[in-house]
Here is the input.
Amino acid sequence: MSEMNAWSLAQARDALRAKQVTSVELTEACLSAIEGADALGAFVHKTPELALDLARAADEQLASGEAPDMCGLPIGIKDLFCTKGVASQAASRILEGFKPEYESTVSQKLRDSGAVMLGKLNMDEFAMGSSNETSIYGDVLNPWKLGEQALTPGGSSGGSAAAVAADLCLAATGTDTGGSIRQPAAFTGTVGIKPTYGRCSRWGIVSFASSLDQAGPMTKTVRDAAIMLEAMSGHDPKDSTSADLAVPNFEAMLNGDIRGKKIGIPREYRMDGMPDEIEALWQEGQDMLKSAGAEMIDISLPHTQYALPSYYVIAPAEASSNLARYDGVRFGHRAALAAGDGITEMYEKTRAEGFGPEVQRRIMVGTYVLSAGFYDAYYNRARKVRALIKKRF
Amino acid sequence: MAIDTATAAKVAKLARIKVDEAALPALAEEFNAILGFIEQLNAVDVSGVEPMTSVTPQRLKRRADQVNDGDQQMQVLANAPDAREGFFAVPKVVE
Here is the structure.
């Protein structure tokens, strides 16, 4: 029997239900793995006591015979999710010391389904980054190495990806605005899914770009992603953009049958100068789908090249507005003031000290594209291009 | 259009982020690089296109106009850097 912390969610769930193991044992296995992996920089706020309390409660629920799928399964939560009484600072200095008085809807749903939170996971500051190097906690390392060469786990959900890949937890939550689940999952050989916008409530998750932000699972297997996504999904009156749709049993839909499905390969997704190695993998993927009975068709999405430039306008614009709330008044860091400093100096010094360079840059770009005289030229144009990109789909 | 140091200073001011005088030229250069990249959007014909306002085709839900929580002064103030007598405290605003 392999180490329990290396199990998948499905494997652990089945073992719990068969009474071969307890949630406390699973949780302890993960906690000791976490203790031995500080060098990765994945877990930044550990909550072992809370975890063991939750595990004991889960074991009682399991004993009663009526336990949801996630019951007793130890997971990590990205630092972007507000967790009641537990530090939640979006890997930023400006939220230093912040302990929310409330729980995000997604982490609450996971808790309601019996999942055991082991602690909070590192990430890029305010989810702005793709290599987990903008965090106030320091860099995260990929548990995979190239020889002796250290590698990035990607970002912004780099702590989640590294923790899952290194078997510090069975699964983790991530968030994705412009690739922040999908890219680190790819970099660490784990499974990540950015659900359709509206599937998971954004309430209680620190906002970056609200029209793009979505939470999703980061797991070891596709089945696990289905199990965890179901527990995270659902309509929430507290998020006006949350989709009021029934949540299907995603796991039951994993029948492996894709016969007759048409899968489009957009011509524009194959980039110039793509390395042969990646080209070969791309081809191999198509062959696998084809041999499983799917029909592959070549398609074109001509506005693809404009996706990134429009993201470069829309995401900072929304971020500049969302991050205006960090002003040193209601929560988090406030700069020490000099004699005679007024409220404007307090805002300006607090934000200069509290935000890292990447976050400052994006806030200012956003401020610029939304400012009088440039709103139409940049922001509205980007929103029109976005409409065109979507229309093509 | 090129951003000069005066514009960079103005943007920093609007964003309420203190930027040292000496850092402004480098900041202006970064803005120019980013805006240069964004310029490609000008190549797209957007005539007659409505700007996207909602990601999914749904109408925002309305809720009943009623108070559904409150009486949480302690919780609201719990994380304040400076709270006094039940209020957030800030430097003097009015002379």
User: Anything to note?
Assistant: The CA atoms of residues 96 and 332 of chain A lie 5 Å apart. The first helix of chain A runs from residue 9 to 17. The longest strand of chain A covers residues 116-121.
